[in-house]
C-alpha cells in the first residue's frame, strides 16, 4: 500500500490543516480540485464512491458530525443551523473523519473519531462546527483550542501513517441505485 501525497480539496482551511498535520510525519502533500458529485448514502459509501470516481493516486476526505437523536452525518449546512439552536446544547456528538484512496482495485479507508458534546458557541477559530464542539476530556471547544489529541482529522492521519486500515472495500464499479446530491 502506497499512500498518495495528493489530497482532493479546494478548501483553504483544510489545506492549511492538512499541510500542518502531514508535516508532523515529514510528508509533503499537494492538492487537487476535482469536483465529485456526492451520492446520498452512508459516510462509508460516500468516501468509497469519492475514491472510486477520482481514481488512483489521490486521497479523498469526508467529515461528518453525528448528533444523538438527529440524522445529520455529512449534511453540514443543516448541521450548522441545528447546532446553533439553544435546545441542541448538551447533545452528545461524534466527529468522524474518513480518508480514502483507490489502489489496485481496492479502496483503503482510514478513520478518526472524537466524541464530544454540543455547547454554546465559543472561540475565535471559525471552521465548520468547531466553535460548538467540546471534545470529551477537555474544557475547550475546537474553536478555542486546536489540540490534535481531540482532532478527528489528526487521528485519521495518524491511523493512515500507522497503516491502520478501518475498511478495505472494492472500488465501486456502478452507482446504479444511488441518488446524487
Q: Number of domains in the coordinates?
A: 1
**Major beta sheet summary:** 5 strands, antiparallel
Report Rg. Answer: 16 Å
Share in helix:
10-25%
Output the helix-strand order: EHEEHEHEEEHEE
DSSP strand content: 25-35%
Number of separate helices:
4
CATH topology: Maf protein
Alpha-beta classification: alpha+beta
What does this structure look like?
By secondary structure, this protein is an alpha+beta fold. The protein has a single domain, classed as Maf protein (Alpha-Beta Complex), CATH 3.90.950. 23% of the residues lie in helices and 28% in strands. The protein has four helices and nine strands; from the N terminus they run βαββαβαβββαββ. It has helices at residues 12-23, 43-54, 76-83, 152-161; strands at 6-8, 30-32, 39-40, 60-67, 92-103, 106-118, 133-135, 167-170, 179-180. The strands form three sheets. Strands 4, 5, 6, 7 and 8 form a five-stranded antiparallel β-sheet that branches. Strand 5 and strand 6 form a beta hairpin. The longest helix has 12 residues, at 12-23. The protein is globular and about 45 Å long. The relative contact order is 0.19.
What are the SSEs and their pairings?
Elements: E1 6-8, H1 12-23, E2 30-32, E3 39-40, H2 43-54, E4 60-67, H3 76-83, E5 92-103, E6 106-118, E7 133-135, H4 152-161, E8 167-170, E9 179-180
Parallel strand pairs: 1-2
Antiparallel strand pairs: 3-9, 4-5, 5-6, 6-7, 6-8
